[in-house]
C-alpha cells in the first residue's frame, strides 16, 4: 500500500511539473549581424508573463507556432504559449498562434517556417516580401 501511495505521489508530482512547463525560443541579434538562439524549458504559471525589450530594430526575434517574428524598437510580452503582444512608438501588435494583428489590422495566418519582420512604421514583410496593408477590422 505504501509503495502504491509513493508511486501515485511521484507520478502526480511529475505530472504537475510537466503541465507548468513551456519551451521558450528567443533569438538575439549579435553585433556581427548573426543571431544567437536560446531555447529553454521554463516554468509557466497563469499569473506569470515574460517581457522583452528591443533597444535596436530587429534585435530580438521570437518564434511561435513555427513562425519567426522579428521586432523593431519597443517592448513585448509573451502572454502565454500562444500569444505575444508588442508595442513600439507608433505600433501595437498582437500575435495569436499564427495570426498577426498590427494597429487593428489583421495580416492573416502565416505558414510554418515563415519569417515575419514588422517595421516601426507598421509595414509587414513575410520572407522579405512586403505584405499589402489590409482593411481595418
Plain-language structure description:
This protein has 137 residues and is mainly beta. The chain has one domain. The protein is built from one helix and 13 strands, in the order αβββββββββββββ. It has one helix spanning 2-19; strands at 21-29, 35-43, 50-54, 60-64, 67-70, 74-78, 83-88, 91-96, 99-102, 105-109, 115-118, 124-126, 129-131. The strands form two sheets. The chain has a seven-stranded mixed β-sheet. Strands 3-6-7-8-9-10 form a six-stranded antiparallel β-sheet, with no helix packed on it.
Q: How many β-strand stretches? A: 13
Largest sheet: 7 strands, mixed
**Global shape:** globular
Q: Which value, in Å, is the CA radius of gyration?
A: 18 Å
Which strand order does the major sheet show?
A: 2-1-4-5-11-12-13
Q: Pick out the low-confidence regions.
A: none
How many domains is the backbone divided into?
Answer: 1
Q: What amount of the residues lies in strands?
A: over 45%
Question: On the 0-100 scale, what is the average pLDDT?
Answer: 77
Percent of residues in helical segments? 10-25%
- Specify the number of helices: 1
Q: Helix- and strand-based class?
A: mainly beta
Amino acid at each position: 500500500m505504501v509503495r502504491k501511495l509513493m508511486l501515485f505521489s511521484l507520478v502526480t508530482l511529475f505530472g504537475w511539473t510537466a503541465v507548468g512547463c513551456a519551451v521558450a525560443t528567443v533569438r538575439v541579434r549579435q553585433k556581427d549581424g548573426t543571431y544567437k538562439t536560446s531555447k529553454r524549458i521554463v516554468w509557466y504559471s497563469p499569473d506569470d508573463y515574460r517581457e522583452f525589450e528591443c533597444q535596436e530594430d530587429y534585435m530580438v526575434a521570437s518564434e511561435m507556432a513555427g513562425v519567426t517574428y522579428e521586432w523593431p524598437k519597443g517592448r513585448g510580452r509573451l502572454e502565454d504559449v500562444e500569444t505575444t503582444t508588442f508595442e513600439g512608438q507608433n505600433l501595437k501588435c498582437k500575435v495569436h498562434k499564427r495570426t498577426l494583428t498590427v494597429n487593428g489590422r489583421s495580416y492573416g495566418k502565416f505558414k510554418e517556417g515563415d519569417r515575419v519582420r514588422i517595421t516601426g512604421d507598421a509595414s509587414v514583410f513575410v520572407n522579405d516580401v512586403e505584405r499589402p496593408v489590409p482593411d481595418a477590422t
